[in-house]
# Entry
Amino acid sequence: MTGIRNGEELEKRLRERSGEDITACGWGTVGTRNVLIGATPSALVLEYVTITFKEKEFRRIPFEDIELIYPAKGDSSTPKLLKLNLQGALTHAITGSLLLKLPGEKLMNITFSKLPRFNANDRAPFRIVEMVQRTRPELVRAPELSGAREPFDFGGCLKRFVLLGLVLSAAAVLVTGLATGEWGSVTLTAGIALGVLFAAIFAPLSHWFRRMLTGRG
# Structure
């Protein structure tokens, strides 16, 4: 597959791949996966591609199989807590998100960044949802995030804390020992303390990181 240089080539590729008229389209990401997404008069088409535009998976989702669809400004997969800086604010300003929920599946967060020559790609979620709304307006509604988002699980968090604590403590002891050339109780205590500290930071946030990496939840 050849590369896609602009919005017209993107629309042409999706039209040829789906065999249907494409009324709106965009180039997004679901976590770390690139996806070309378009709206036809009766369905959404998603083509997952590699960085060289080789197709990995093609999926056609009829409107009747959609539970809800909704556009949002910014990156919906990143928690607000991680946007409280200048870089987060800039990223929020040049991205848009398509929230897509299918029955029995986790909420999908498809992020669209502003791209040159791609017809205001960050606005693609709004154009796609506008096309869906013309035929199935009942599908367009914001998800109740308290129910759609993965809830905090204390038991799972505790397990992750123990696992991370063991792994990070061992790594910290090794690094500290190699750096200082000492392998006594001081090195052991310092390494364990560092491992426990970082485990305490990352264990409660792991479900956020998983959502950012997978684009789901």
About this structure: The longest helix spans residues 154-180.
